[in-house]
Structures are given as structure tokens and as C-alpha cells.
Design brief:
alpha/beta, Rossmann fold, 2 domains, six-stranded mixed beta sheet, four-stranded parallel beta sheet, 13 helices, 10 strands, binds pyridoxal-5'-phosphate
Length: 365
């Protein structure tokens, strides 16, 4: 008879640290309020209600607050995040802002690996949360560099692009979809015709789509993609290996590869929105409501307006929800700067004219 092999790695102090870290993250959620569902004004006779789910009111100012919370809980419960070892992330900025905050909450270091083109305001936000920024010239290298830094420092590469979809609780737990439906409960059209999302990791659209299927809704999921993104061609051609040569100009969305967290089979519809139309949409929203929103919100809003025009054309009434992903004050030197828009070779004027016509005629080609 052989003897029993028994290796015991039980570490009481690590378990205690994990328990305390999880408590701090849950306590943060417990003291946070839900985000608002705001009605966007449309002509009353259309009988179509358009809403923005305002994710800019999270404590770290974007929808990435939800993701960062989920990734930290997932990493802690998996035994991936350890005391005295930094967390490292490849990010276009917003995730890093939120992760720096949660790293600070549990007392671990945080390093963000980002493209040099990331807006200055976002870099300042990350540093204010106690994070460090590691900038790289080639945006397609952020993943390798983050992985390498994790090896060098003995830290944990969070890898949002792989884990966003699985770290998020898609069945409920007040995820973004469950929250939207709870807030629509007393509206005249409580089941929207469409929910529009944009994709960076793809996690938000995956969570929404799964939740809709799981709860038996008829609502469609439309993903609005910017120029130069691999998500649309990858979805259209059913090919996950598609790559693009150029990075997206709309921060937070549009990737040069089909990220592992993007779930094409769950997405009903996609639209490619010209970057100039994105800028026209966000400036138009500012003129109409006084609200400044980030670039990706403009991309989703343009798609939502087109869906609205389609419903009008078909004589249908109902509701549409799109996401306000982050606030415009993060991009004053980009989408709200005429100099930047000119340098980028973008001309929002014709799209702006189309939006003005849309509000008069209900048509948006
Ligand atoms: C990440 C991000 C998105 C897209 O969300 P995903 O869940 O990562 O697909 C949209 N807008 C902004 C500003 C983002 O940072």
C-alpha cells in the first residue's frame, strides 16, 4: 500500500486578506446608488421613447466601474490577486481609472499599460487614484507589454479583454441589463425594441444579450462600432481572426482584433458609425440637453437615432435604450476640440445637418 500524498497550501492570513478585500468591495457597492435612466427628448407625436443609461455617475465615472468591481472580485476569489503584488492592466483608459480605484481600496499597486494617444485627462485620473501609467507607442502591443510587466513584477495581469464577459454576473445581481429593466417598469413601453451598446471588451453587450435571452425578452441587441474596428467585420464574416491595421479614434471602443470577450452569436445587429457622425451626435446632444458625453456615447446615440427613424418609417411606437458610457469632460482636448477634429480630418457638419433634419422629418439616412 502506498502512502497518501497530501500537500496543504492553506494560508490563513491570505484567506483573511481575501475576506477583508471582498468585504471592502462589497461595501463599496452597498454604499453606491444605481445609475440613472434619462429620457432623451424627441418630438412627442413620434410616440417613441429614447433613454440613456447614464453610467457616468458611478464613483469612477464610467461603465467600467461595474467591470472593475467584477474583475477584482473574480481575481480575488480565484486566488489570482495577492497581497503585496500589483495588478496590471492593458487599457484604453476608463478601465484603468476604475481598477486603480479598486486597487487602492484593497491596498495593492496598480499599473496601466495604455496607448500613448490616451487622453491627458484620463492619465491624470488614473494617477489621482494612485495608479501608474506605462505608455506604449503601438496600441496593438498593450497586451504583450502588460503580460511582460506582470512576469517582471510578480503581479497579476487582469486581462479585461479576456475576462470581462465571464467575470460579470449576466443572470442578474443588478447588472446593467437588470437595472435597465427595473427602471423601465413603470414606463409606457417597458420592453424596449432595441438596446444599443458599443464594444470595447465586448463584455457589456454580452451581458445584455445573455440577460435578454435568459429572461425571455424580445428586445434586440444592436452593437454600434466605430471606424477601424475588427468587431464588425468579425461579426459579419463570422470570423474571430479578423484584424485591422489602424487603432480606433473613439476611446474605449473599436478594437483591432475581435476580443475574446466579444460574443458575436448573441448580438442581433451591428452598425458601423462614421467617426464624424459620432462627433456630430455628441455635439448635437450637448446643444439639445446641455450634457457633454464621451465619444462612444455619440456612436451609440447615432445608431439609436437610426433605429428610431426605422421604427417611425415602419409606423411603430416603442422604446430604445442606449448607453451613456462616460462623461465628455474626459475628452475636452479631443472630441470637443475643433483643432483635434480638424487634425483628425473629420467633418461632422454634414452629419449634424442630417441630425437636424431627422428631428424635423423623422428620417436619418
Ligand atoms: C469600455 C467602454 C465601452 C464598451 O464597453 P465593453 O463592455 O468593454 O464592451 C464603451 N464606452 C467606453 C467609454 C468604454 O470605456
Amino acid at each position: 500500500m502506498g502512502s497518501t500524498v497530501d500537500v496543504n497550501r492553506y494560508d490563513a492570513s491570505h484567506r483573511e486578506w481575501v475576506a477583508e478585500s471582498v468585504r471592502r468591495i462589497k461595501a463599496e457597492a452597498n454604499r453606491s446608488a444605481d445609475t440613472n435612466l434619462i429620457a432623451v427628448p424627441l418630438p412627442a407625436e413620434w410616440n417613441i421613447d429614447l433613454y440613456l443609461k447614464d453610467e457616468s455617475t458611478h464613483p469612477t465615472g464610467s461603465l467600467k466601474h461595474r467591470l472593475a468591481r467584477s474583475l477584482f472580485l473574480y481575481g480575488l476569489c480565484n486566488g489570482w490577486i495577492r497581497r503585496d503584488a500589483p495588478v496590471i492592466e492593458a487599457s484604453s483608459g476608463s478601465t484603468a481609472v476604475s481598477e486603480a480605484y479598486f486597487a487602492g481600496l484593497i491596498g495593492v499597486g496598480f499599473i496601466a499599460v495604455m496607448a500613448e494617444s490616451t487622453s491627458r485627462q484620463k492619465i491624470e485620473l488614473i494617477e489621482r487614484e494612485g495608479g501608474t501609467c506605462h505608455l506604449v507607442a503601438d496600441p496593438s502591443r498593450v497586451y504583450d507589454v502588460a503580460q511582460q510587466l506582470a512576469v517582471e513584477t510578480g503581479g497579476h495581469y487582469m486581462d479585461q479583454f479576456t475576462f470581462a464577459e465571464r467575470a460579470t454576473d449576466w443572470r442578474g445581481n443588478n447588472n446593467i441589463a437588470e437595472s435597465i429593466f427595473a427602471q423601465l417598469a413603470l414606463e409606457r413601453f417597458p420592453e424596449p425594441e432595441w438596446i444599443v451598446a458599443t464594444a470595447g471588451t465586448g463584455g457589456t453587450s454580452a451581458t445584455i444579450a445573455r440577460y435578454l435571452a435568459y429572461t425571455g425578452r424580445r428586445t434586440g441587441v444592436c452593437v454600434a462600432d466605430p471606424e477601424n474596428s475588427a468587431f464588425f467585420p468579425g461579426w459579419q464574416q463570422r470570423d474571430r481572426t479578423v484584424r485591422t491595421d489602424t487603432g480606433s479614434r473613439i476611446e474605449g471602443i473599436g478594437r483591432q482584433r475581435v476580443e475574446p470577450s466579444f460574443l458575436p452569436t448573441a448580438i442581433d445587429r451591428m452598425m458601423v458609425v462614421p467617426d464624424a457622425a459620432t462627433i456630430a451626435a455628441l455635439r448635437h446632444l450637448e446643444a439639445a440637453t446641455g450634457r457633454r458625453v464621451g465619444g462612444s456615447t455619440g456612436t451609440g446615440l447615432w445608431a439609436a437615432y437610426r433605429l428610431c427613424a426605422e421604427m417611425l418609417g415602419a409606423g411603430r411606437t416603442g422604446s430604445i435604450v442606449t448607453l451613456l458610457c462616460d462623461p465628455g469632460d474626459r475628452y475636452l482636448d479631443k472630441y470637443y476640440s475643433d483643432a483635434w477634429v480638424d487634425d483628425a480630418g473629420l467633418d461632422p457638419a454634414p452629419y449634424r445637418a442630417r441630425l437636424d433634419a431627422f428631428l424635423r422629418t423623422g428620417e436619418l439616412p
